[in-house]
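Handout, section B. The chain below has 198 residues.
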Amino acid sequence: MMRGLIKGDNAFVPTAALRVAVRSGVDVAALLVTERGRVRGDADIVFDGAPAHASGAVRLAEGEDGTVWLDADLAGVEEGVDRVLVVVSTEEGALRDARGLSAEVFGPDGATVVAYEVTDAGAETAMVVAELYRRSGGWKFRAVGQGYVDGLTGLAVDHGVDPDGEPQELPERIPVPTPPAPAQDLAEAPTLAETQPG
């Protein structure tokens, strides 16, 4: 029996291999996050360039008519993962232009367990549509609908992802030329600190 949720609602789902249909022709990704809401590393990001998590528990597959399928074997999700976020984004335009944006969860028998249709998208270009999360020894589905006007960059930073994919080991100062410059010149050397995320 299908149960339609509104934003903020949640419902228990089977701790089993579920399929989530994300509709409306948007780009889809999944973030596997800890109880702190952050990924443990790049390997916890499942997207079209890396469509399967190393654990095998979460996978993405393109479907027909703009549907993307997220397969989540909840029994196989690693203990360190507290939530699986269902993330959508657009390359052009805003999410308000994505008609019929929704997430529908199917059980192992193919029947709809729960569904959520986003009805209040605005100028956002990225959104956490929904999440599967641990609760009381089982799993629940929550209709989240949290959008980001600053797109995937804002969403990524909020969940511990480096949006540039670059190591954060930038030097504090530009390297000293050879031979060493006088101390007064070094004091005026520009820093890269302002380019590093806080």
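Note. The CA atoms of residues 20 and 72 lie 8 Å apart. Compare this with the example in section A.
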